[in-house]
UniProtKB/TrEMBL annotation:
<dbReference type="InterPro" id="IPR001602">
    <property type="entry name" value="UPF0047_YjbQ-like"/>
</dbReference>
<dbReference type="Pfam" id="PF01894">
    <property type="entry name" value="YjbQ"/>
</dbReference>
<protein>
    <submittedName>
        <fullName>YjbQ family protein</fullName>
    </submittedName>
</protein>
<dbReference type="InterPro" id="IPR035917">
    <property type="entry name" value="YjbQ-like_sf"/>
</dbReference>
Length: 146
């Protein structure tokens, strides 16, 4: 059973951003020739996440508002006490809220592959969440099957 992967880059905008990465995943899947199996999408950062949901503009705004309520930027997070931490980069942001948001979501999604297509439902899309942008991000896509 072949296993192939790709790492692709995504440049994100400031703040919380939600990106539909479904077309990019399907394009890669089509290039592999794999017809049946599964595909893993993995976010390689601690302040990003993935989810499968509807990519509808008003829902995306609701999701952003929900995440901001879960982890408001104004809370006094210990992670943001940069002067008390050791060995941190000079450009380290105060981003504890972004880490907490990411923990409420997931770092990966696995999707069945049937007849060379992602077996997503009618309104489902693979969503990549940037929780601490702007940044240059990478996603790993790994397909296994036949």
């Amino acid at each position: 059973m072949p296993i192939v992967h790709e790492i692709f880059e995504l440049k994100t905008e400031p703040g919380i951003g939600i990106y539909n990465v479904t077309p990019r995943i399907q394009d890669f899947l089509s290039q592999t020739g794999i017809q049946n199996g599964q595909i893993l999408v993995f976010s390689r950062h601690t302040t990003t996440a993935l989810a499968i949901n509807e990519y509808e503009p008003r829902l995306l705004e609701d999701i952003k508002a929900y995440l901001k309520k879960l982890a408001p930027t104004s809370e006094p997070y210990l992670h943001n006490d940069l002067h008390l931490r050791e060995n941190i980069p000079e450009d380290e942001p105060m981003n504890a809220h972004s880490h907490l948001m990411a923990m409420t979501l997931s770092t990966n999604e696995t999707i069945p592959v049937i007849q060379g297509k992602l077996a997503l439902g009618t309104y489902q899309a693979v969503l990549f969440f940037e929780l601490d942008g702007p940044r240059q991000r990478t996603l790993l896509i790994q397909v296994s099957g036949m």
